[in-house]
Amino acid sequence: MQFQTGDTWTQGGQTFRLYAVQSCIRGTTFTNVAGIKRDCGEASIGYFAALIKDAKLRCTALAQSGSVNFAVCAAHIGGQTLDLGTILITQGFAFAATDPRGKPVNFQYAVAEGDAHKNRRGLWASPDLPHPSAILRSAYQKSN
Q1: pLDDT in tens, 70-108
Q2: Which residue from 53, 38, 117, 52 is spatially nearest to 87, judged by alpha carbons?
Q3: Is the residue at 112 inside a domain?
Q4: Which of 46, 40, 51 shows the shortest CA–CA distance to 83?
Q5: Is the pLDDT at 47 greater than 90, yes or no?
Q6: 130 lies in a domain?
Q7: How far is it, in rounded angstroms, from Cα 54 to Cα 32?
Q8: Does 42 map to a domain?
Q9: If you write DSSP's letter for every residue of the chain in order, what string do you get?
Q10: What b-and-e string marks burial along 38-58, b requiring 16 or more CB atoms within 10 Å of the CB?
Q11: From CA 43, how far away is CA 25, in angstroms rounded?
Q12: CATH code, 9
């Protein structure tokens, strides 16, 4: 398995992306709890890789765009089966994807993101978190 981002990976020659999940964008930086600037995208990838290393994944492709399969995945961790997107967002290492108007693609993920933000979990502990949805929305608006 090769990780492209904190929400996209290649396995068996196919590329998968978690549906309705947005990881931090590579090249954007945040200040970690030790006060050190780090690449936000790399932090998302690191958490994603560590999480699924110990989990047995079962993914279902929902749609395809070009060569990318948009999927939802169940993660079997210990005796529990959990939604992978929910885990990543609840723990503060991914975000609820939004449409170009800023509306969440999945409302449950938006609720999970709000909880992670409120409780300053994961990347939300940073005072200068570069929220990827805001960056992408701004880029979209500039291009139109």
Answers
A1: 999 999 888 889 999 999 999 999 999 998 888 999 999
A2: 52
A3: yes
A4: 51
A5: yes
A6: yes
A7: 25
A8: yes
A9: -EESSSSEEEETTEEEEETTEEPPPTT-EEE-TTS-EEEHHHHHHHHHHHHHHTSEEEEEEEEEETTEEEEEEEEEETTEEEEHHHHHHHTTSSEE-B-TTS-BSSHHHHHHHHHHHHTT-GGGGSTT---HHHHHHHHHHHH-
A10: bbbbbbbbebbeebbeebebe
A11: 10
A12: 2.40.50.90
Domain residues for 69?
A: 2-138
Residue 77 falls inside a structural domain? yes
Tell the burial category of 18 from Cβ atoms under 10 Å away from its Cβ (0-12, 13-18, 19+): buried
- Count of domains in the chain? 1
**CB of 77 within 8 A of CB of 68?**
no
Kindly report the pTM of this predicted structure.
Answer: 0.91
Cα–Cα distance, 116 to 103 (Å, whole number): 18
The CA distance from 44 to 123, in Å, is 9
